Amino acid sequence: MLVENNTVVAVHYHGYFLDTKEVFDSSLEREPLTFLVGHGQMIPGFEAEVLGAEMGEKRTFTLEPERAYGHREEERVMAMPIGDFPEEIEIGMTFQAEVQGQPMPFEIITINEETVDCDFNHPMAGKTLTFDVEIVSIRVAGEEEISHGHVHGDGGHHH
């Protein structure tokens, strides 16, 4: 069986920045990552790079920002009144706002006398990511998983 749309795939992965070899995420010390292929659960390039793989196959690939978390957008940096934040605020702290009913995390990047600059870009936006991936398991997704758009059971969502 090959990785294709509407299959449930479990992978072990090791993600790092190619130039510095700094690891940003890895499943090697925990359970594999399980996802439903073709339903937007993964960044586009990751999913595209594992399509056609078979059980036990290992792949290494590098994703430019367009195929990962996109480029940084300066219009996603916004000034907010300093009074909206606790007194002990520091650069680098992360908070979460609610935008149109959805959680929207942001990072404090500058603190001024009256305002705080908040960066709503994804922390990995603008970065080139490299992954070492091993396909641990592949199975056909159930009808309910396909209609719900996510994995059920082990490694997935429980209703």
Written overview of the protein:
With 159 residues, the chain is mainly beta. The protein has 2 domains: 7-69 and 125-143, Chitinase A, domain 3 (Roll); 74-119, Thrombin, subunit H, CATH 2.40.10. The protein has helices at residues 44-50, 143-148, and strands spanning 7-16, 23-26, 33-36, 58-63, 77-81, 94-99, 102-111, 115-119, 129-140. The longest helix has 7 residues, at 44-50. It is elongated.
What is the fold's blueprint, element by element?
Blueprint lengths: L6 E10 L6 E4 L6 E4 L7 H7 L7 E6 L13 E5 L12 E6 L2 E10 L3 E5 L9 E12 L2 H6 L11
Antiparallel strand pairs: 1-2, 1-3, 1-9, 4-9, 5-8, 6-7, 7-8
Could you name the key traits of this structure?
159 residues, four-stranded antiparallel sheet, 2 helices
Report the sheet with the most strands, covering strand number, pairing sense and barrel closure.
5 strands, antiparallel
Helix/strand order, N-terminal first: EEEHEEEEEEH
Class inferred from helices and paired strands:
mainly beta
CATH class of the largest domain: Alpha Beta
User: What is the beta-strand fraction?
Assistant: 35-45%
Q: Total strand count, please? A: 9
**N- to C-terminal distance:** 28 Å
- The global form is elongated
| Helical content (DSSP H or I, runs of 4+) | under 10%
Task: Please give the CATH architecture of the largest domain.
Answer: Roll
Alpha-carbon Rg, integer: 19 Å
Taken together, the total number of domains comes to: 2
Short description:
This protein is mainly β and 159 residues long. The chain is built from two helices and nine strands, in the order βββαββββββα.
